[in-house]
Amino acid sequence: MKTKRPASLKEHIHTILYGTPEEKAQLHRTFFHVADTPDFMKEKGIKGEYFSIRYGIISRHLGKDTDHALNEKDWYNLCNEIINPFAIAHYGNGFRLFTNVKVNGLFTAIGVNVNKPGKDFAVNSIMTAFGYAGIPSNEVFFYVNKNLTPEQAALLEGLNSPQYPTEQGS
Q1: Is 155 within the bounds of a domain?
Q2: How far, in Å, CA of 82 to CA of 49, rounded?
Q3: pLDDT score recorded for residue 162
Q4: Exposed e or buried b for every residue in 14-23, given b needs 16+ CB within 10 A?
Q5: Sequence-distant (≥ 6) Cβ neighbours of residue 128 within 8 angstroms
Q6: In terms of residue numbers, what domain contains 96?
Q7: How many domains does the chain have?
Q8: pLDDT at site 160
């Protein structure tokens, strides 16, 4: 039995960011579908059927700082790019995906946890999305696209080569 997907983030991001207080109040407890999870990510442990984000995750970061200042176009692009990250790392009990979307000139990192809202049904819940200037030396990647741009490679450059997977993605 397939579970009904939440509303589309692309269709609601304008209201989330710029709607009236009344319009936003109607979305207060809403989860939004961001993108379907590609098979290569499921094989690597990011096994939810799709990526979702809760209204509160977006709203609590609004105006927080420049690194979290994703505008409407950034969120729209993130919905397209989340399925094609250039690197993925374990982070705590979840994952961090590095995408080609830029916020204030910085690549966007997306924190994701795999949640199980129903019996045998997993969803990749986005917990944060922010522009990322540098990567901590303890970040452990299990996927790095083999076709990195020079700018992406420079971001990952500070890492020790043993941290890179022996078999990189395509």
Answers
A1: no
A2: 14
A3: 43
A4: eebeeeeeee
A5: 57, 61, 68, 110, 111
A6: 7-134
A7: 1
A8: 40
